[in-house]
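ok new one. same drill as before - structure tokens go in, u give me an amino acid for every spot. 342 of them this time. try not to just spam alanines like last time pls lmao
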């Protein structure tokens, strides 16, 4: 294995790794003041390695803040495996990744993320013990992540409209993957109306069929007249092009995607437009909380109770933001920083 250290100010450790099997991975540890770094492995196509490095830095930092705000004793880290257009032997690739994770000697624990599955983590486990989200243990975190996002959505509704009842409210769901599908299920049961999109038509049709959703084109989702916009795909979707499209159509933004704001200024723009933005890492912490069943020995009921606390966290963030007249993302960052700096 060819491992190279990358130095970036503000990060504890970043490594790049490649091997003869065609594996090319990155692992970033942002902060371990609260405990060992945890964060999933993303398997994705990037234009260049620099794009992947930029993403792993943002994602690992987000994990530090997510874990701190959720009140769990872990730091932030993240993995990226750079995917190419060619077909790959997943066992070979993920066993190589397991060997890479093992080089951190327990300072970093991985799990599934975008493009990976619990089955992939079983391959990782063949080479390292520092992996969670296993089929035989806590399993797929997607349903639990969706539950947390749903509770965040209820809290945002309570803050904006005085009631957390989502019946007859319209939600524009961007991304119908694992988390998006389970979120759609929660929303359907709550009586919400769904407008959905995804780059994968098969996933769209499934949500439309199972939860009576209405499908729209991928770009049209931003201009949809919906009470709530739920970004559940990739990051950077809240930017100079999309925010003006949301203005006048949407009152609340809350979803499962990481790094929804392309830049922090976009969180300020949403606040100026009176769109209530629920910070992504505050809403989508359910998956990492689910991992506490393996990492801390929690039972399911304790994990679900902790996930439901996301509701109270969002209410607190919005109340402080309203009282101090500052954007919600600034409040969430401050609360997280108070915890890992204490």
């Amino acid at each position: 294995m060819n491992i190279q250290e990358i130095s970036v100010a503000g990060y504890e450790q970043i490594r790049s790794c490649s091997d003869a099997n065609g594996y090319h991975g990155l692992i970033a540890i942002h902060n371990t003041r609260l405990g060992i770094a945890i964060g999933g492995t993303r398997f994705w196509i990037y234009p260049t390695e620099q794009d992947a490095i930029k993403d792993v830095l943002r994602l690992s930092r987000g994990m530090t803040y997510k874990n701190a705000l959720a009140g769990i004793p872990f730091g932030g880290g993240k993995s990226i495996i750079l995917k190419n257009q060619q077909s790959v032997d997943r066992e070979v690739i993920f066993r190589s990744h397991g060997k890479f994770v093992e080089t951190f000697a327990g300072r970093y624990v991985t799990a599934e993320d975008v493009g990976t599955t619990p089955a992939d983590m079983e391959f990782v486990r063949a080479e390292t013990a520092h992996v969670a989200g296993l089929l035989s243990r806590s399993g797929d975190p997607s349903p639990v992540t969706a539950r947390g996002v749903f509770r965040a959505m209820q809290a945002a509704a309570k803050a904006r409209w005085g009631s957390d009842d989502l019946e007859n409210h319209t939600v524009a769901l961007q991304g119908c993957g694992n988390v998006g599908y389970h979120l759609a299920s929660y929303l359907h049961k709550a009586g919400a109306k769904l407008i959905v999109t995804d780059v994968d038509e098969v996933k769209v049709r499934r949500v439309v069929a199972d939860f009576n959703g209405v499908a729209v084109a991928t770009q049209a989702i931003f201009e949809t007249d919906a009470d709530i916009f739920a970004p559940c795909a990739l990051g950077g979707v809240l930017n100079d092009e999309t925010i003006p499209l949301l203005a006048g159509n949407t009152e609340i933004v809350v979803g499962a995607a990481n790094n929804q704001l392309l830049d922090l200024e976009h969180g300020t723009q949403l606040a100026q437009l009176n769109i209530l933005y629920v910070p992504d890492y505050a809403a989508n912490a359910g998956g990492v909380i689910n991992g506490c069943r393996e990492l801390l020995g929690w039972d399911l009921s304790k994990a679900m109770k902790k996930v439901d606390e996301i509701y109270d966290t969002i209410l607190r963030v919005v109340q402080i933001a309203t009282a101090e007249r500052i954007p919600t993302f600034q409040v969430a960052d401050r609360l997280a920083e108070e915890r890992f700096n204490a």
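The mean pLDDT is 96. and btw The longest strand covers residues 24-31.
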